[in-house]
């Protein structure tokens, strides 16, 4: 069974950091494009960051560039999202997703992704 599971969310003060994890089962993450997305209450889901299927290309939303870093540990079959200098506007449910078609580029278009995790809540508040 193909599955993605996010973890690492929580409550953090503005300026703080969190590292989200996206662990896969049933397939190997490093063969496929992976994206991180988020959805705040009352807002549409937006792309945050992504890896191409080759792993050679990454991209970030303008709102998080310079503060968030995507990485992966192939041995653990896990992709991470390191989030620094968090702001209240980063509050959202964060999702990871995989595009299981081969040779895919890095995109934050959610409609390109086939499999989604259940999400993890990130709340930035003092």
The low-confidence parts are: none
Number of contiguous helices: 0
Quick one: biggest sheet?
A: 7 strands, mixed
Indicate the multimeric state: single chain
The overall strand count is 11
Q: Specify the overall morphology.
A: globular
**Order of helical and strand elements:** EEEEEEEEEEE
Q: Helix proportion of residues, in percent? A: under 10%
| Average pLDDT over all residues | 94
Structural class: mainly beta
Q: Which radius of gyration do the C-alpha atoms yield? A: 13 Å
Strand content: over 45%
Distance between the termini: 40 Å
Description:
It is globular, with a radius of gyration of 13 Å. 0% of the residues lie in helices and 47% in strands. The model has no long low-confidence stretch (mean pLDDT 94). It has strands at residues 3-7, 10-12, 18-25, 33-39, 46-51, 58-60, 68-73, 78-83, 92-99, 115-116, 120-124. The protein is built from no helices and eleven strands. The protein has 126 residues and is an all-beta fold. The chain starts with a strand and ends with a strand. Strands 2, 4, 5, 6, 9, 10 and 11 form a seven-stranded mixed beta sheet that branches.
How would you describe this structure in keywords?
126 residues; mainly beta; 7-stranded mixed sheet; 4-stranded antiparallel sheet; 11 strands; 0% helix; 47% strand
What's the arrangement of secondary structure elements?
Layout (H helix, E strand, L loop, with lengths): L2 E5 L2 E3 L5 E8 L7 E7 L6 E6 L6 E3 L7 E6 L4 E6 L8 E8 L15 E2 L3 E5 L2
Parallel strand pairs: 2-11
Antiparallel strand pairs: 1-3, 3-8, 4-5, 4-9, 5-6, 7-8, 9-10, 9-11
